[in-house]
From TrEMBL:
PROSITE patterns recorded: GH16_2 (PS51762)
Record domain GH16: where: 42-326
CDD domains cross-referenced by the UniProt entry: GH16_fungal_Lam16A_glucanase
Bilayer-crossing regions: none
Pfam families named among the record's database cross-references: GH16_XgeA
Identification of the protein by name: Family 16 hypothetical endo-1,3(4)-beta-glucanase from glycoside hydrolase
One BP term from GO: glucan catabolic process
Signal peptide: 1-23
Organism: Gymnopus androsaceus JB14
UniProt cross-references to SUPFAM superfamilies, sorted A to Z: Concanavalin A-like lectins/glucanases
UniProt keyword list: Hydrolase, Signal
Entry's Gene Ontology molecular function annotations: hydrolase activity, hydrolyzing O-glycosyl compounds
Highest taxon of the lineage: Eukaryota
Keyword Signal applies: yes
């Protein structure tokens, strides 16, 4: 090849590379660390659980008194009550659901640095985002799972007009491609992560980082374990800039297409951190039977949650940081 042609070629490659980098470089706009979670940036949701969980979401005063929320300068803990035996007439185990005051739209990126997540039979923890009108403003579940499962699942829930292609550039395993909340009992379009991304195995490794990017072109979710060797620059250190182009192939990838226009399906979202019990996920008979009926010796999730407070001593989030980049 002529050297002038090679020079031309390499200048095109460089120029294209620069454009891509600029398009996916984000600047830190909010850090939630330690006491930030308790000083007005989040509100305490105290209504009955919309998903029929065996839970009572408490207000901030009750959470503080019971040490269900606890913060230092650099760590935030959110946990459920692990001392009270409940009777059948109680509505459920005390726990906490937080909602961010701020909303974040597209384009933006988020890094969750989590050292420990709630684990154990009956637990259903989640870290997710949603808009003010559910489901038409969209829901993005970044971290979610139940009982003693060892895999995370990431899911979108939307209005009626959103389905995903069966083949996408992601490393996770498709559970369902229909994102519409009205279909399939609101399963949403879920993607299952590899073992070790959730529950006891996640916790024993010291947790890790979840990354999420949303643009009008795609919603992408990543995971890196605490000891992973491929944690992208900026993610572990909470840098003031992250470049999502360097984050590799996502575990879950939900692109805009002719069957789902993300720009109309997803508005600006609040962040939610919640821990519920049983309900329409952890308490579903088939799921409970698979992962917990034998080990607990109890046939029903609600009965187990009522009678065994000490089983929830590890049902806590320990969050190092939530960083939002815009
Ligand atoms: C907890 O989070 C999940 C999202 O993963 C949501 O579907 C569920 O409704 C939440 N539970 C409550 C009580 O808000
Ligand atoms: C509250 O919880 C934190 C974190 O688990 C713990 O370090 C602290 O000792 C607890 N405080 C009380 C009064 O139990």
């Amino acid at each position: 090849m002529h050297s002038s042609f090679i020079r031309l070629l390499s200048s095109i490659v460089v120029a294209t590379g620069l454009l891509q980098v600029q398009a996916a470089t984000y600047t830190l706009s909010t850090s939630y660390i330690g006491e930030d979670f308790l000083s007005g940036d989040f509100t305490f949701f105290t209504s009955p659980d919309p998903t029929d969980g065996r839970v009572t979401y408490v207000d901030q005063a009750t959470a503080t008194a019971g040490n269900l929320t606890f913060a230092t300068d650099d760590v935030f803990i959110l946990r459920a009550d692990d001392t009270t035996v409940l009777t059948a007439s109680d509505p459920g185990r005390n726990s906490v659901r937080l909602t961010s005051v701020a909303t974040y739209g597209s384009p933006s990126a988020m890094v969750l640095d989590i050292a420990h997540m709630p684990e154990g039979c009956g637990t259903w923890p989640a870290f997710w985002t949603f808009g003010s009108n559910w489901p038409t403003d969209g829901e993005i579940d970044i971290l979610e799972g139940v009982d003693n499962q060892n895999f995370n699942q990431a899911t979108l829930h939307t209005g009626p007009d959103c389905t995903m292609a069966a083949s996408r550039a992601q490393t996770g395993t498709i559970l369902n491609n229909d994102c519409a909340a009205a279909d399939d009992g609101n399963d949403g379009c879920g993607v299952q992560f590899a073992p070790g991304t959730f529950g006891p195995t996640f916790n024993s490794g010291g947790g890790g980082w979840f990354g999420m990017e949303r643009t009008v072109d795609a919603i992408s979710i990543w995971y890196w374990a605490r000891d992973a060797t491929n944690v992208p620059v900026g993610v572990a250190d909470g840098n003031s800039e992250v470049i999502t182009d360097n984050w590799g192939t996502p575990v879950a990838f939900f692109p805009t297409s002719s069957t789902c226009d993300l720009a109309t399906e997803f508005t600006a979202h609040n962040i939610v951190i919640n821990l519920t019990f049983c309900g329409v996920f952890a308490g579903v008979t088939s799921i409970w039977d698979d992962s917990c009926a034998a080990s607990t010796g109890v046939a029903d999730c609600n009965d187990f949650v009522d009678a065994n407070p000490a089983a929830f001593s590890n049902a806590y989030f320990e969050i190092n940081a939530v960083r939002v980049y815009e």
